[in-house]
Write a structure and sequence with these properties.
16 helices, flat, Cathepsin B, Chain A, single chain, ABC transporter transmembrane region fold, 4-stranded antiparallel β-sheet, alpha+beta, 425 residues
């Protein structure tokens, strides 16, 4: 370990000792990671101290500001060294004043809520997940912009078909046909680029989220005290594996379908501009699918929760069986272990089957409503054509837009399963 890192760890350990929370520099070093240049990773030090109930903060300012902030503190010296300042008289030292680098660190114990109060504070168990998402907001902001571009460009095909049927075919204006074709081809090229960029951004966000979630889990795992060690190692490892469901949500291609959902209003507006009565069809279809999906969420969550719970216990039984195989054979307990494993397997299979049935119900309902919406659009469109309020090209364009508006809902059904798995994890 290089000298600056050693000085930092020694200083932090001394601060903790002065605060009544002694820590070993060796133990801190074991919980921290290194940068590529061999320097101590300060973020990992923050995490290690947080796991011990300590807040490690960095601040910049003069020595006078340091005194007002409160002592003791760890000051950074020019050249990469560190020194603990325990009293105000040490700030007057010429060595400190001459070598002070302009920033310092403080170490304070975290304040815990008084559980004797009548209304104890509630912890938000999902706060860490939202912190990860908030750190990825720049990626998802660009994903939203790319999605906006994709949805706007997707209107080009329906407008192209409408104009070809209404203007090119009756008048045989082939010049107009090729102008529209070249313009639409350009729009589709931009659409391809936007979709590719969107997928790349989702993958980048998922990679960063995976690294942060995995690092946080391992840090918490290494910070577990031996007295808090879980009784079943297999079930605990299975629970850690279940956190991959969160990564699946953040990296899933169907996540883009969730971003696409708000843009169904754009397609409804375009349909209304072609023929206002036709806009009612996708609105009704989407409302029906949303109601069905909402009704399914509660039983779907229960099924996924049961499946993950029993799956963790089955994994725990498998690991414990391998570890204690000799004991099982000595005590002739193979039949008992087999019965438990068979029961867990049956329970997991039933819960998984229920979740698949419910998710398929939403997918099938979405597909059926999409087809019914197409039929309803054609039926209403025929009457509008006979009334002279709609052209043949407008009807075909409206059918395309109606299907485009409802299409993301089918993918969202698959995403709903992943979201429920992430919430359970």
């Amino acid at each position: 370990m290089n000298a600056p890192s050693a000085d930092l760890l020694q200083g932090v350990a001394q601060l903790a000792r002065l605060g009544g929370r002694p820590l070993s520099p060796t133990a801190l070093q074991a919980q921290c990671t290194r940068d590529r240049d061999g320097q101590l990773n300060v973020e990992s030090l923050h995490g290690a101290l947080a796991a011990s109930g300590l807040d490690f903060a960095r601040a910049e300012g003069s020595l006078a500001q340091l005194e007002r902030t409160g002592l003791p503190a760890l000051v950074a010296l020019e050249g990469g060294g560190y020194r603990v300042i325990a009293g105000a008289d040490e700030l007057l030292s010429a060595d400190v004043r001459g070598a002070y680098a302009g920033h310092f660190f403080t170490l304070r114990p975290r304040t815990a809520p008084d559980m004797r109060s009548e209304i104890p504070a509630r912890r938000n168990a999902r706060a860490w997940f939202w912190r990860v998402l908030w750190g990825l907001r720049h990626y998802y902001a660009h994903v939203a912009l790319a999605t906006l571009l994709v949805n706007v460009l997707s209107i080009a095909v329906s407008l192209y078909v409408m104009n070809v049927y209404d203007r090119v075919v009756p008048n045989r204006t082939y010049e107009t046909l090729w102008v529209l074709t070249i313009g639409t081809a350009g729009a589709l090229a931009f659409d391809f680029a936007a979709r590719t960029l969107r997928g790349w951004l989702v993958d980048l966000a998922g990679k960063r989220a995976d690294m942060e979630i995995s690092a946080g889990l391992f840090q918490r795992l290494l910070g577990i005290q031996l007295i808090q060690k879980p009784a079943s190692s297999g079930a605990f490892v299975s629970n850690l594996r279940d956190f991959e469901a969160i990564r699946d949500v953040l990296t899933s291609a169907t996540l883009t379908a969730l971003v696409d959902l708000p843009f169904f209003l754009l397609f409804v507006v375009v349909i209304a501009s072609i023929a206002p009565p036709l806009a009612i069809v996708p609105l009704v279809a989407i409302a029906v699918v949303v109601v069905i999906g909402a009704l399914v969420q509660a039983p779907l969550a229960r099924s996924i929760r049961d499946s993950m719970k029993e799956g963790s216990q089955r994994q725990g039984l498998a690991v414990e069986t391998v570890e204690g195989l000799e004991t099982l054979k000595v005590n002739n307990a193979q039949a008992h272990a087999y019965q438990r494993g068979e029961w867990f397997t049956e329970t997991v299979a039933l819960a998984s089957m229920r979740s698949r049935i419910l998710s398929n119900l939403v997918i099938n309902a979405t597909s059926t409503m999409q087809q019914l919406a197409t039929v309803a659009t054609v039926v209403i469109g025929v009457y509008l054509i006979h009334d002279g309020r709609l052209s043949m090209g407008g009807l075909i364009g409206a059918v395309i837009l109606c299907g485009r508006a409802i299409a993301p809902l089918a993918q969202v059904a698959g995403l709903a399963v992943r979201i429920q798995q992430a919430r359970t994890a």
